[in-house]
Amino acid sequence: RMMTEGTGLLGYALWPVFGLLVAGLxxxxxxxxxxxxxxxxxxxxxxxxxxxxxxxxxxxxxxGEAAFLDIAIVLALVxxxxxxxxxxxxxxxxxxVPGRGDAREEK
Length: 107
Hints:
The protein is mostly helical. It has helices spanning 9-34, 38-63, 67-95, and strands at 96-97, 101-102. The chain has a two-stranded antiparallel sheet. Helix 2 (38-63) packs antiparallel against helix 3. The protein is elongated. The model has no long low-confidence stretch (mean pLDDT 85).
């Protein structure tokens, strides 16, 4: 039995939320795949993982299973670490000057 069965407004509100999250996931996945630049793809991927965290949290409310909140927390931590790693990669990649190696050598 779902937790929100017969609970009134919450039960009706969760289904549109699921729909909006899925629509956001599709749009963010398209941004992550199409780019056009690497930072656009990183932002798209970060948005996908954030929406997946939200989906897991809403599903936890719908199902009444607290384990999905644990999944959401772990996914949020992994998403944060991935975003930091991508940001460092993009930053280092941006410092390189084509044809001259690393820009730090110019000083």
